């Protein structure tokens, strides 16, 4: 299958991918466009998740790409970013599902697990045999998770007893395991636990009424005396710094997903405006419509340049928190502008699911906020450039 750069990759950043990576991207794109895209508007309207895609995404090795112990060939962080972009270009919810399972859940095991835990869990997760979720955010603790975590883990012999609650946990209505982060009653440090979701005392309840990322199955989780063996504690998670190490890796991929969501809206707007006739000619021939499209492409191109460089830095081992924070803050802010301009280009039809832009427009709001709000990411960067922490 011959690789075709996206027209929205205006400066040709995908040329940096290897031939094997390009083949993988094209196989993924073909599946998403033919099998997933025709379903997403209906799924979004019904707030349903297409469980059948888990097996196919596993067959395409989407869950394998991130982790050395399971990936089939050497691939770059830039490649992994383009995977996130392709997913979000079709649907941001599908990209979020993969980000939670592959990035946050598998990432936690890979970064903070022991060799034995990686060997046990990563192959099963990469194959789609089990699906993971990531439980950090709580009803009263989001941006202040480093200090405000209220879920408690109490040591009881060879077990730990977990009590608390989590909120906004993606995949959690159907996950087989959830990575639960809790404060130890012994030393007050944050620790991670691999919790099987059929454990007594573990309850996940779907959050209803969402108007963004409706396909993602977010849940409220209640933990009532959930008993977890020491062998299921992530052996290298000893403080919130270890949690942050996972978030650092995934935050940049959220920025990539923001670019993909922008591209999805832009492609839909470009297609529509070239076909929609008013005053005797396609509205794409009008100056003001072209202005909206070009501004959108400019946002996409500048954001893509930033995320490519951040991923290069990750490959080189020099990416720090402030780099991924700036990429996430910038790309999601530009996405918010872009989807609004694309919706504007469609006029009234911009709010109808049939034309695709409305879904990208609504989903942008969740991407803008999760895995670090713009404000929190701004303060991470601000601390670096000024030397002053201004979080409180």
Automatic annotation (TrEMBL):
Residues 244-385 form the Acyl-CoA dehydrogenase/oxidase C-terminal domain. It comes from Subtercola frigoramans. It comes from the Bacteria. Its EC number is 1.3.8.6. PROSITE patterns: ACYL_COA_DH_2 (PS00073). Pfam families: Acyl-CoA_dh_1, Acyl-CoA_dh_M, Acyl-CoA_dh_N. Belongs to the acyl-CoA dehydrogenase family. Keywords: FAD, Flavoprotein, Oxidoreductase. Its cofactor is FAD. This is Glutaryl-CoA dehydrogenase. InterPro entries: ACX4-like, Acyl-CoA_DH_CS, Acyl-CoA_Oxase/DH_mid-dom, Acyl-CoA_Oxase/DH_mid-dom_sf, AcylCo_DH-like_C, AcylCo_DH/oxidase_C, AcylCoA_DH/ox_N, AcylCoA_DH/ox_N_sf. Residues 19-129 form the Acyl-CoA dehydrogenase/oxidase N-terminal domain. One of its GO terms (molecular function) is glutaryl-CoA dehydrogenase activity. Residues 133-226 form the Acyl-CoA oxidase/dehydrogenase middle domain.
